[in-house]
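Lecture 7 notes: from sequence to structure.

We start with a single chain of 943 residues. Read the sequence below before looking at the structure.
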Amino acid sequence: MTEPTPFTPPFRDPQLPFAKRIDDLLARLTLDERIGFLHQFGPAVERLGIAAFRTGQEALHGVAWMGPATVFPQAVGLGATWNPDLVRRVGEAVSKEARAMRARDDRVGLNVWSPTVNLLRHPLWGRGEEGYSEDPKLTSAIATAYTRGLRGDHPTYWRTAPVLKHWLAHNNETDRDVTSSSVRPRVLNEYDLRAFRETVEAGATAGVMPAYNLVNGRPNHVSPYLREHLRTWTDEDLLVCSDAGAPSNLVDSEHYFDTHEEATAAALLAGVDSFTDHGTDSSKITARVRGALDRGLLTESDIDTAVRRQLSVRFRLGEFDPEHDPHALTGEFDTPAHRALAQEAAEQAVVLLKNGADLLPLAPDTRLAVVGLLADECKLDWYSGTLLHRSTPLEGLYERFGAERVEFAEGVDRVRLRTSTGAFLYVPEADAADEVRGARGALDPALLTGRTDLPPLAAGPDGTELALADWGEGVLTLRAPDGRYLSVAEDGYVRASADQPGGWVVRETFRLEPHGNGHLLRHIGTDRHVSVAADGVRVAEANPEIFEIVVVERGEDAVTRVAAQADAVLVVAGNDPHINGRETEDRTTLALPAHQERLLRAARAANPDTVLALVCAYPYAVDHTSLPAMLWTSHGGQAAGTALARILAGDVSPAGRLPQTWYAADADLPDLLDYDVIGGRQTYLYFEGTPLFPFGHGLSYATFSYADLDTATTDEALRVSFTVTNTGDVPADEVAQVYSRAVDPAVPRPRRELLAHSRVRLAPGERRELTFEVPWSAFDFWDVSRPGWRREPGAHEILAGASSEDVRLRTTVILDGEAAAPRPVRRRGLPAADFDEQRGVAIVDRTKTSGDAVTAVPGGAGQLVYRACDFGDGVGEVSVTVAGEGTVEVSLDGGPALAVLTSEASGPYDYSTLTAGIAAEGIRDVRLELRGPLRLAHVGFSG
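Now the structure, written as tokens:
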């Protein structure tokens, strides 16, 4: 008798389309099971054979947090390559390592939370290291390449499922969960949304993660833009994953909702599908969802919509078809190809900023002094994996030039700390093994604590000489002779125990505070002073020790000594990615830390042939007048030192380009919370000053000529072509860049705007024609008078060259388009946020679900200007839709007030309409002045 064929439920049938399989699985899941899927850590459903699933695996420039993996350059360094093909290959390698790591550790997830596509609008943003560029076009090109690599090429099954971070307009860490980014419609559409849109439309994105901040007064986790914009860009089921703890913030810190049930329901209805909250404990989120259901705030259909999107990702990852998943057996991890790619990426990320007198490349027989706090470091950031291989600049130069030709001085101040009793702090000997933070992996590295298996510091007659480095603003690290940093563990004792500064709360930083004839030593992480007790040195609330800082050697003296004996000096300066600029902490200045400035001055005074290599995640404002040569690279991952050495030696010609403007001084910067790139004249698009180095800048050891610029039109695009020739004597890459500029725009438009670019390798004497197809939509702008996209007719310059300022060729094209029309204010009035100009206002939420209003910034009057308003034959009445208390003053063309409308006290969402008489005809500019905490949503005209 033939055995009956076991029943295969439709959701297990690979011959059916995913949509039908998801329908079947949803019908089989109980309500409680579906609710359980809404948390980041979705439980297994054993009765159906469904495994547990976790959304979220950090993979910004390599698999992070899960132990050793290939570490590529930081994201901003990948942006500096201007090379989408390279970045696609990096994404491919990262996704293959994720698959290989998951095969041996199922904690490794395949829903990767990368890349970060927030634009590098402001150079003091603490997380600038995570983004690619200040330009939306370049950002989307690099992000699209990375997501394509992460996704893989199979038409059905994805190697990993990338989620874009952080939706939306997120460029400040200071009070990031309570600040609101005021983003006018033009900036929203032309700038912040654009990088996300072009990446999503490319088709390799599984979803997005909303940011902690609010936009226009409304938390991103309940943003209508998820529905109004994001989900209209693709037919795919995009998965929206909350940021960690953000759902609770809606009540706890933002106070946007009164109860967590209301907040959770609002987030789910807005489009959040997976809630990252309370770590691995899903009980609070599931209880909130159940409570929202009981209160009628949600329906089962709402829950099914979110679960469907999550299941769509899981099906695409091949979870339910292991025998058909082409990526299931992927085992490529730390391969020679991945190591070579890490080095290639690090080399391509190096930007030669200056090369006076052709000091670089260095001659093979150069006697080189290598100095600086970063010279023998290979720094990791919060989103790095653990290093399998490590190359510092010093190690790379030893290998390339020979250790006998390289002298090293770190430039730290070598000190002893004398107590008030005359004893010195010392580090006891210990037999404990070395330990690298995070080497074993952790789902949440923020929970990793310091070591307690080593003895704490003590006081005695013979002190330990400590290496003191000042990282700026008085933030210090102290390192023992064995290389371990002084750190404070949970028990409060001070030990030499950390391989590097790091952690969610950095436990290796201190501050010296003058006190009488000595100093108190404050531990920044605990905000407590160091105290000396009988059982060891610890931090405590009382009895702080007063220390005398006994300087054994100043860093600049060591630098001077080696620099004076060398043919050339390399100063390696920059930042530690965990100090003074990181997630949760913005920078306060562009200035290089004073300690490193001292070292730079000492090196330059001792030897005029001094090269500055900035290894950092952010731009610095450095006076390079007396420096003959200067380079920049981000923290370049495992091969950073080898790459820098090969560039300095001329084995590789540098061709990295700046992905953001380097400003000359803090005075050039807008306020960190000023998100109006148009009104604030921010980024290379609008900045009218003289930058230290412009967007797109980068030099080469070769020279290149540009010629034969030509344009042609098709129905879909403007075709731009020109030739580039390597006129130098070494093979090298050139990054050819194409920009546009509206010649006589009716509204403020970018000074120039990147249209396209290409990184090409040319042999000496080689000439190549480059052709770019620029879609006509690239010339559109958001016209607030209609509102919508419009292409302005008339002359546009097409610029080709080596940077945004190094323009080699230009021509003018005349575009067809739609002429500007006055605002039809009698018919549609003036939506308050659709202004042309503003001063002293912020955009806020009209309601908690949708719409915008405008309010004056507290403490002053706000001004709004609406150009070219058509009153036709005339109007006799003005109306304003307002909430709150204050006044609206209406005038025309800068004249006297024609109407003043006063609103009495009311709630922020309790709108009413006020009217007043006004006489206006023809085409006029409307000016409004707002006073008080009033919210203006709309202005109408009638009569």
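The chain has 18 helices and 46 strands. Keep this in mind for problem set 3.
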